[in-house]
Amino acid sequence: ALAKGLLRFITCGSVDDGKSTLLGRLLYDAGMVPEDQLAALVRDSRRQHDDVGDQLDFSLLTDGLDAERQQGITIDVAYRYFHTVRRSFIVADCPGHEQYTRNMATGASNAELAVVLVDARKGLLPQTRRHTYICSLLGIRKVVLAVNKMDLVSFDQTTYQSIVDQYRELARDLGITEVHSLPVAAPTGDNVGVHSERTPWYDGATLLELLETIDAAPFRAEDFRMPVQWVNRPDQSFRGYAGTLCGGSVALGDEIVVQPGLHRAHVDRIVCAGADVEHAVAGQAVTLCLGREVDASRGDVIADARRPAPVADQFTCHLLWLGDVALLPNRTYWLKIGTRTINARVMSIKYKVDVNSQAKLAARHLDLNEVASCTIGLDENIAFETYATNRTLGGFILIDRHSNATVACGMLDFALERSSNVH
Ligand code: GDP
Fold first, then answer.
1. Is residue 134 within 8 Å of residue 126, measured between CB atoms?
2. CB 13 within 8 A of CB 116
3. 172 CA from centroid of ligand 1 (Å)
4. Residue 378: other Cβ atoms inside 10 A
5. Strands 406-415, 395-399: parallel, antiparallel or unpaired by DSSP?
6. Closest residue by CA, ligand 1 atom 28
7. 3-class secondary-structure state, position 379
8. 351 vs 243: CA distance, rounded Å
9. CB crowding 108-137: b at 16 or more within 10 Å, else e
10. Distance from C-alpha of 27 to C-alpha of 46, rounded to nearest angstrom
């Protein structure tokens, strides 16, 4: 087993800050570029940059498909897997264009850490602030700030330090508890995999060392929860509830409750990857057989009977609006949470947040990429958690019922007063 296990991180920053180049260089320094790919890199670097001699263009390793490259844009989230002897990594590489906030949000919701890039010549840009804000909204508490293009500011320590100071202030305001910073130059690999001689004033870790050693246990919800994906009933003699545990663990004999209802039962069998097991933990996909017939179907949550989830139908939440058409209160959307899809109405926009200043502003509607605190009402009760407690049962998306497009992602903050907590 690797000493530090898996680290899932996201890279973010404005377009042209050097994300592709840095990630490519990181893969190269970690020894993760196979021979044939390296040969292609040398060839492509020459073809695309006649003028720069033999310098490799590491962004070519990560810039995705050829077609995209020729259009000069990178789209979608690209998940990349790599490993060193110390750790394995999954990185979500998200383009910096503002219109791709949705991809960024998707990447951030699955990450424990963000590597935020800043161009040393430009300092913090609005996009740096937005991305940091979205990371914090989606629960990321650890950031590596890579001040890139240090070669273009003569590796000047004062420039570096003033960017770091500004960023630390921003991070503190946003509840990001841990910021590691370092000066880098991506194409030449200064402080990426090897300590740079050009930053004698920096004696901290390289980017690779930081990523290998940072303590970032994946977020784990404590209480046993399993949203039911489907009911497996091949014949009269077998009925199993299939799903992926999104919190805690479950063992044979445990008493569970099927929520939002009150039916209780004991766990009779746990089947995992075709074999009977005695217990299962968060992240595992299983089929549970229960000691007696209960009425459970897709969308229900099977939970620890001693520590059930709260149940409610009205909430305050944070919404990140991703729709081309503005959010209008009182319109009905589909809300998907866990395995459940239910009608939802945004009842009111309490305030929207200026992501640059964190100021709270009055709003009647929400436009693309805006963030707001809202109240939301559902057709029926659901079992839920706050996003801070459980990302699966506290995070949701809204879908437009006509276009079928995902128009928002949301984080539940708490249930409103009038909710009936039946437990
Ligand atoms: P992205 O849009 O954030 O992925 O940025 P790219 O990786 O495509 O880099 C944008 C441009 O900046 C490219 O021309 C890179 O070669 C250049 N670049 C990236 N990092 C550095 C750096 O540290 N120093 C210098 N001089 N150029 C850099």
1. no
2. yes
3. 28
4. 18
5. antiparallel
6. 149
7. strand
8. 36
9. bbbbbbbbbbbbbeeebbebbbbbbbbbbb
10. 20
* C-alpha–C-alpha distance, residues 58 and 350, integer Å: 45
Mutational pocket test of ligand 1: of 11, 12, 16, the residue with most ligand atoms within 8 Å of the beta carbon? 16
DSSP letter string over 52-110? GTT---THHHHS--HHHHHHT---S-EEEEEE-SS-EEEEEE----GGGHHHHHHHHHT
Distances 101 to 63, 96, 208, 392, 415 between C-alpha atoms, Å: 18, 8, 26, 20, 27
Q: Judge if the upstream peptide bond of residue 260 is cis by omega within 30 degrees of 0.
A: yes
Ligand 1, pocket-test mutation among 14, 23, 59, most atoms within 8 A of CB: 59
Query: Which secondary-structure segment (H or E) carries 373?
Result: strand 371-383
Pick the residue whose CA is nearest to atom 21 on ligand 1: 149
The tokens of 209 are what?
A: 């060392």
pTM of the model: 0.81
What are the pocket residues of ligand 1 if the criterion is a CB atom closer than 6 Å to any ligand atom? 13, 15-21, 59, 96, 148-149, 151-152, 185-187
Residue 216 contacts residue 112 (beta carbons within 8 Å): yes
DSSP at 386 = -
At a CB cut-off of 8 Å and minimum separation 6, what does 4 contact?
86, 87, 212, 213, 215
Q: Give the number of the atom of ligand 1 that is nearest the alpha carbon of residue 24.
A: 7
Q: What is the DSSP letter of 185?
A: B
Bridge partners of residue 270, in order along the sequence: 277, 288
Two structure tokens written together for 249: 């663990």
ipTM score: 0.99
According to DSSP, the residues that pair with 89 across neighbouring strands are 7, 82
Q: What is the pLDDT along the chain (423 residues), one digit of tens a residue?
A: 455 778 999 988 888 889 889 998 998 898 877 777 777 777 777 777 665 556 777 777 665 534 444 444 444 567 788 888 889 898 887 665 655 677 778 778 878 999 999 999 999 998 888 889 989 988 899 999 999 999 999 999 999 999 999 999 999 988 898 999 999 999 999 999 999 999 999 999 999 999 999 987 777 789 999 999 999 988 888 889 999 999 999 999 999 999 999 999 999 999 999 899 999 999 899 999 998 888 899 999 999 999 999 999 999 999 999 888 899 888 899 999 999 999 999 999 999 998 878 899 999 999 988 999 999 999 999 999 999 899 899 999 999 999 888 899 999 999 997 645 444
